[in-house]
Amino acid sequence: MSGALWRQTLTALTTGAGPEGSDREQVLAQAAADLALQDDDAASPADVQSRALKEFGVLLGENQARTALHGRRRHRG
To answer: For residue 43, how many C-alpha atoms fall within 13 Å in the half-sphere facing its CB?
Structure first.
């Protein structure tokens, strides 16, 4: 996980809000997607949902997990 995403994740977990007005769940979804992709380049939205619940105690919808996964894949290039 990049340093910027890690800091945003810590902010979301400690303050209950994302940085600069972003949505807390969106930040945690991005972090869960990044962790899922570290485990498996072919990670699925279900993998992201599982990581979000396990690591952050957050229940993500399938669409939210899919969007985060797509965003992290684009970010990784």
So the answer is: 26
| 3-class SS of residue 42 | coil
Summarised one tens digit per residue, pLDDT across range 15-38 is 877 666 668 889 999 999 999 999
Residue length of the chain:
77
The parent domain of residue 55 ranges over 3-76
Phi, psi of 23 (to 5 degrees): -75, 130
DSSP 3-state of 39: helix
What is the pTM for the complete model shown?
A: 0.89
The rounded distance, in Å, linking the Cα atoms of 36 and 34 is 5
The closest of 52, 56, 53, 57 to 72, measured between CA atoms, is 52
Task: Say how many domains are in the chain.
Answer: 1
